[in-house]
Amino acid sequence: MTEQVLRKDAARNRERLIAAGRDLFAHGGLDVTLNDVARHAGVGIGTAYRRFTNKEELIDAIWEQQVDEMESILRDALGTPDPWEGLVLYLERSLDAQARDRGLAEILAGRVWPSHYDRQRDRLAPLVDEIADRAREAGVLREDVVGTDLILLQIAITAVSTTVNSNALPKRSNDVARLYSRYLAIVLDGLRASTRQSTLPVGPLTVEETHALLDPRRR
């Protein structure tokens, strides 16, 4: 077997492992093992460990794809002419992605910290801030809401998807799978600028405080 064939085979196995990892993490979260991923991909355990030294390296590779996808959502939202519609689009699509992918939700909630997460986090956080700033400056988002609020609200809403097991309510499995959308609608009513607003009892976290809170290294 030539070296070129070996390289193609290795690249193909790597992509199979990434696809299998995304599938398993989406349904089972990040507790899935690399051995589980290898079996799901239809490759040997040894092959899996040649492509990825450990599960964290596999998560890093998957996270690279997910960051690209999240950035695309954010840029689509910023490209929406109406600032409020852009904010809603971002929250709806981001929460839908997390509801369908438990692993993504756990990563965004700080469950793991890939070695290159800091750099990629910096690609997303400024865009979230820009979405909030644009809506606030347009007078459609309440004046005391900032980008970090949008991030933490998503973590709170996503907890619905990770806590509620649709298998427990088979007759309403479709409703349960999208239960997060109910709470997003309630939250959006609270985010929209209006003349009747309660004064928030405490101020928002800064970007640095939010990242420190979600950094698993603190644990």
UniProtKB/TrEMBL annotation:
What protein name applies here? TetR/AcrR family transcriptional regulator
Does this entry carry the keyword Transmembrane helix?
no
Q: Which Pfam families match?
A: TetR_C_43 (PF21597), TetR_N (PF00440)
Domain HTH tetR-type residues, every copy: 11-70
The domain of life for this entry's organism is: Bacteria
User: Which controlled-vocabulary keywords does the entry list?
Assistant: DNA-binding, Transcription, Transcription regulation
Q: Extract the PROSITE patterns matched here.
A: HTH_TETR_1, HTH_TETR_2
Q: Where DNA binds (residue ranges)? A: 33-52
Q: Does the keyword Transport apply?
A: no
